[in-house]
């Protein structure tokens, strides 16, 4: 017997569920009214479901929607898993727990964002990685996969990056990267030189700002911050966000998604401290090119 799931507000898992249901309804060619009729539910209920606003969700309803739209079994299982998530503002998504391990919750959140703020102390951020840099990392994360599977993963990363380069409403990208990321060699120095020049070029875009936190800057705020991403979704009216901002913390066995307003504000204050202690954009761009030359020369 399926149980209704209570919800006091629009939680992150439910919003992601709604995005997928809207996307697949559109793919299937149904209007909202027609889909609601076939599912024997009110059009208002389906609309709220697609916005992540339903106060009660039954797993059998989600399964019926997935059947109607023709979702693959693994994706349908993932959407049912999203519907089952607890009503929490800080959501720990453990790989393989309710939601299949290969289902990537983060990508959909990233694609919907209007501004992305990120701090990466040791790695070049994913949205700014070149294919060879990413390929080297992928082959080490999934050493048992085939080269074809590595390439598929790299292509997905390159596809994600289009939100930065698209001509219509590209995402605003505000990045602080630790100096260590510029020296730590991924695969070989030739790749690093190309990667650093890519950072210099991308950081010249109007919608991209990249600043380097030099090692000499120490620990702004007195603590060592982990890598984090803050996803923001714009405002429908002054001071009214379209969706609550989300902090993303990536882990080895699972990911943390933080929506609590005070916690998000704390991360943003930490980011401001990091950003304030970092080099400005122009100086960072000069450093990228200088270190690219040093990587090429082997020094």
Structure write-up:
By secondary structure, the chain is α+β, with helices and mostly antiparallel strands. It has two domains: about 5-90, lambda repressor-like DNA-binding domains (434 Repressor (Amino-terminal Domain), Orthogonal Bundle); about 105-295, Endonuclease, Chain A (2-Layer Sandwich), CATH 3.30.870. The protein has 13 helices and eleven strands. The chain has helices spanning about 10-30, 30-40, 45-50, 60-70, 75-85, 105-110, 130-140, 145-160, 160-165, 180-185, 190-200, 260-275, 280-295; strands at about 5, 55-60, 90-95, 115-120, 170-180, 210-215, 230, 235, 240, 245-250, 255-260. Helix 2 (about 30-40) crosses helix 3 (about 45-50), helix 4 (about 60-70) runs antiparallel to helix 5 and helix 7 crosses helix 8.
How many domains comprise the coordinates? 2
Q: Tell me the number of helical segments per DSSP (H or I, 4 or more residues long).
A: 13
CATH topology of the largest domain: Endonuclease, Chain A
The proportion of residues forming helix, as a percent range, comes to 40-55%
Rounded radius of gyration (Å): 21 Å
Level-1 CATH class name of the largest domain: Alpha Beta
How many β-strands, per DSSP? 11
CATH architecture type of the largest domain: 2-Layer Sandwich
Order of H and E elements: EHHHEHHEHEHHHEHHEEEEEEHH
Distance between the termini: 66 Å
Secondary-structure-based class equals alpha+beta
Shape: globular
Largest sheet entry = 7 strands, mixed
């Amino acid at each position: 017997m399926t149980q209704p799931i209570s919800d006091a507000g629009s939680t992150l898992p439910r919003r992601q569920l709604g995005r997928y249901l809207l996307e697949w309804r559109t793919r299937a060619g149904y209007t909202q009214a027609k889909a609601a009729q076939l599912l024997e539910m009110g059009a208002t209920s389906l609309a709220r479901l697609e916005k992540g606003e339903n106060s009660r969700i039954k797993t059998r309803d989600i399964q019926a929607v997935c059947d109607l739209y023709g979702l693959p079994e693994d994706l349908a299982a993932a959407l049912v898993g999203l519907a089952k998530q607890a009503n929490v503002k800080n959501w720990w998504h453990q790989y393989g727990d309710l939601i299949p391990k290969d289902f990537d919750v983060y990508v959909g959140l990233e694609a919907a964002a209007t501004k992305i703020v990120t701090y990466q102390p040791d790695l070049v951020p994913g949205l700014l990685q070149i294919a060879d840099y990413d390929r080297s990392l992928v082959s080490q994360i999934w050493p048992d996969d085939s080269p074809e599977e590595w390439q598929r993963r790299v292509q997905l990363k390159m596809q994600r990056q289009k939100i930065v380069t698209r001509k219509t409403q590209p995402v605003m990208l505000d990045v602080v990267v630790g100096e260590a990321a510029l020296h730590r060699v991924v695969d070989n120095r030739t790749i690093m030189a190309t990667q650093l020049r890519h950072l210099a070029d991308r950081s010249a875009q109007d919608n991209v700002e990249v600043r380097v936190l030099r090692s000499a800057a120490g620990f702004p705020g007195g603590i060592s911050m982990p890598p984090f991403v803050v996803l923001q979704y714009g405002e429908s009216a002054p001071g009214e966000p379209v969706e609550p901002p989300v902090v993303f913390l990536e882990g080895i066995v699972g990911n943390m998604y933080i929506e609590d307003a005070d916690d998000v504000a704390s991360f943003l204050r930490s980011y401001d401290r990091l950003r304030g202690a970092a080099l400005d954009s122009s100086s960072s761009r000069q450093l990228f090119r200088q270190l690219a030359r040093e990587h090429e020369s082997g020094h």
